[in-house]
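Homework help board

Subject: predicted structure for assignment chain

Our instructor gave us this sequence and asked us to write out the predicted structure in token form, then describe one feature. I got the tokens but I'm not sure how to describe them. Can anyone check?
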Amino acid sequence: MLNNSNTSRIRKQMVAIISVFLILVTTIGYIAPFEVYAEGESVVVPKKAPSVSASSYMVMSGSTSEKVASKHADRKMQPGKITMLMTAMVVLDNMYNDRELKNTVETGSAIAEYGDTFKEGESASVGDLLDAMLVGGDVQSAELLAKYSASSRDIFVNEMNAKCMELGLMDTLFKNAGGRYDIAAYSTAADLAVITQAAYRYQAVKDALAKKSVKIAVLDKKKKKPRQVELKSTNLLLTGNEKTDYQYIKGGILGLVDESVNSAQFAAIAAKDDMQMIVVLMDSAKENTAREATSLFEYADAKVTKNTIVKKGKMVGHARVRGGAVTRVPAYTETKGFAYVPPEGSDSLIQTQVAMYDDLNAPLKKGDKVGEYRIYVADELKGTVDLIIKEDVPLGWYPSRYYISNTATIVLGVMLFLLLVLLIRAGHVKRRRAKIREVMRREKIRELAMMQLEIDEDRKRREWDATGYESMPPRTTDIRREAINEGGSRRGKKTRSKT
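My token output:
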């Protein structure tokens, strides 16, 4: 009896040990995937964000809109030269097409007071002004663009604030296009992060922010040869000596709010493994900006959620190109696409949309942006992936203006030629048949004429006389009577036809 009790107790202990072991294995297997990248590298997530001197900041994923880290992100402060990102968006929105980038804008006396890049009477192209503003942070260029884009600078500023409303930003108010200090102007690190994300979707902005320096041509009416002005990027992450493992810095803009206290507003965007991250620093010491932004980028890389929903290089549709040798070209995702769903949400909230540009004109180069792969969470746009082409699209023949490619033009030409040949052949056959019918008709007439001639000759040979047919033998008389009747019938028909 005792032995049976001991055996039962041992059996229960074994079952308990096995159950605990299975629970541990299941738990470890469930947690492991969240601690390992797809590549198999282990991830060490910092417990808290690094300490920075900025009064406020925001770290946000440009790919998914996930807010990774922040400090007083809703505090209203001077936006500084980050304002120029909004200026660039409004200018590009107001443009009819890319050809406007070649238009020139002349510097007036009022704008000449905002800096020394341009003198009164000098002018530059819209494209060069955008580069000077976004790369060098040039205030004069921003004011010239506002003058060009709207009938007055006040109207342009209203359009800037309307764009903020369009983006859903309620804590931002701009007072000028260049980001100059104005006591009534304000924004927050959170809003400026969204502005940076939106601006980076414009190809012209993306190209400019990646440049370390830019040379612009300044035109003078009195001089035939334009002078060159070189501006260096204000983004210290591109031009400074700061070392970082978080490479692929895409661009940014730095603006001093108050030179006396050396206070800077800074916004930059970077990417690693196709995940875009945005850092906005408000009232940061200029000498610390690059180092603090770098530490925040590295922290964000370790903490951000990387839920891939579309692979790089995936063909997702075709773009229509006007005036090209080909008018329908496949579009591919330039990078990976990510989505972030809050813990209380579900993956079923994720939706995607392929949006192709409808104003593409040849020529296009390999790598040009032709659309966007848009990612929505709960019907709200959270991120985009650029769609690019992998082949050049040269100018096509005249029909390509109507979206008829060169190949289609050749096919249509061959079809029209074959149709023309068939029409000519059909006409030839019709004429030939008509000719044959005419020959047959004439042959029939000839035969009838020959028959009539034979009858006439037969009559002459028999010396037929209508008055003396009774004296002839009966057989001959019958033949003559039939001939007379037949002749009378024919004469009657002839008479009726004449009538």
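Reply (TA_rk): Your tokens look well-formed. For the description, you could write something like this. Confidence is low (pLDDT under 50) at residues 23-43, 466-472, 490-499. That's the kind of observation they're looking for.
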